Amino acid sequence: MEAVLVNTHQFYKWFMDLESAMKSETEEKYRHYVNTLTERIQTCDGILNQVDETLHLFNELQMQHQEVATKTKTLHDACDRLVIEKQRLVEFAEALRNKLNYFDELENVASSFYSPNMNVGSGNFLPLLKRLDECISYVENNSQYAESGVYIIKFKQLQSRALGMIRSHVLSVLKNASSQVYAAIRSSGGSKAAVSEGVETSVIYVRFKAAAGELKPILVEIESRASRKEYAQVLAECHKLYCEQRLSLIKSIVHQRISEFAKKEELPSLTRSGCAYLVQVCLHEHQLFVHFFPSSSEDVSSLSPLIDPLSTYLYDTLRPKLIHEANLDFLCELVDILKVKVLGEQLSARSDSLAGLRPTLERILADVHERLTFRARTHIHDEIANYIPFDDDLDYPAKLERSAETEPVTTSADENPDLFKTWYPPLEKTLSCLSKLYRCLEPAVFTGLAQEAVEVCATSIQKASKLIAKRSSTIDGQLFLIKHLLILREK
Predict the structure, then answer these.
(1) What are 151-194's pLDDT values in tens digits?
(2) Phi and psi (nearest 5°) for 194?
(3) Directed axis angle between helix 215-224 and helix 267-292, to 10°?
(4) pLDDT tens for residues 53-78?
(5) How far apart are CA 234 and CA 390, in angstroms?
(6) What is the 3-state secondary structure (H, E, C) of the chain?
(7) CB atoms closer than 10 angstroms to residue 71
């Protein structure tokens, strides 16, 4: 209901009330806003306080995390150091254990080698021997270790025992193989000194090779370690034992064969047959030796205890006959056989297998050269220097006239061998002798003999020329001298 304004006072009052009401309505909304904003500000302040507290807590947490990370890294580094130290200690312990193993092996190896069941043929002998060698090498290379001298002595004692077992085993097997060969020879119906060639090859070589086959692995193992002094000595002893057993088997057979040749053949044929047979024996022996000692076959001295006695017997058979041989043709043939056929062809073609024969054959050849030189000097002295001419030898020029009537005219002795008949015999003997010696003697020796022979021949021709001058005429003697000296110079 609207109020009735009576006066100004009422109007002002109404107006003030109206204005107050309007203000009240307007301010209420803003007041509400203010209150709302105030609440929001308070809320934001609370949130900010909480954020500050949270940031503070995060800072504390970050500091704590940093501290934990630092401690963790320190712990991790310490763990890494401990792991490295542990690994180093483990490696050190392992290295120490490995080093001590060489010393600890002494008891194990000793108990094995001194075991009554241990023998060279057992499967663990060679591995034990190899381990023993490794221990010896290690201790020798580390002499600074405590008691290394004591251990090396004990290891060496075990090695000596093992090598002694090997020597005994090799000798036992070789003797057993030889016994089997003897038994096979007896069963074949022959004696040891009388064996047919077929039986000789099949029994003495094939049977021996089969009987001693178990030695090959051991001998090969020894050869592989021959660079060490102890094994080199054992290998040399095995070579010696082998050669002794082989020599006992074939010595009498070789002697019997060569003796048969000596009884029924002349010296050149005996030399040819004896050398050929000995070459075959040496080839077979070398092949058998290579089977057992493949790495030692290149050393010629290894087979010397076997080859030298066999070749010496041939030398002893030939030398007495050689000393009494006076035939120059036989001696020249011997030089050709030894120098060309045997040394030049057979030994050169098989130099490795037959090298052991060369010293003896060269010794025989040297004796033949010596005998040939002596006989040549004797021939020059007896047949040329002291030649006593017959009347027919000095019948010049009638001798030339008779030859011209019976033979056609020729220019050289090669075209007409009968032309030699017109020569003075010392000239023909000189040229014939020198032609034989030319290929048989060393150049220096031949040159000396040739000079001597030519001088003696020239002197003999001069003497004959003087005799012809007395018998016929001076001109005939001079023509005889000129002709023969020209022939001597040309030849």
Answers:
(1) 778 777 877 888 888 888 888 888 888 888 888 777 765 554 44
(2) -130, 85
(3) 80
(4) 999 999 999 999 999 999 999 999 99
(5) 74
(6) CCCCCCCHHHHHHHHHHHHHHHHHHHHHHHHHHHHHHHHHHHHHHHHHHHHHHHHHHHHHHHHHHHHHHHHHHHHHHHHHHHHHHHHHHHHHHHHHHHHHHHHHHHHHHHHHHCCCCCCCCCCCHHHHHHHHHHHHHHHHHCCCCCCHHHHHHHHHHHHHHHHHHHHHHHHHHHHHHHHHHHHHHHHCCCECCECCHHHHHHHHHHHHHHHCCCHHHHHHHHHHCCCCHHHHHHHHHHHHHHHHHHHHHHHHHHHHHHHHHHHHCCHHHHHHHHHHHHHHHHHHHHHHHHHHCCCCCCCHHHHHHHHHHHHHHHHHHHHHHHHCCCCHHHHHHHHHHHHHHHHHHHHHHCCCCCHHHHHHHHHHHHHHHHHHHHHHHHHHHHHHHCCCCCCHHHCCCHHHHHHHHHCCCCCCCCCCHHHHHHCCHHHHHHHHHHHHHCCCCCHHHHHHHHHHHHHHHHHHHHHHHHHHHHHCCHHHHHHHHHHHHHHHHHC
(7) 10
Q: Are 360 and 314 in contact (CB under 8 A)?
A: yes
Tokens representing residue 224 in the block = 């592989």
- Global pTM reads 0.69
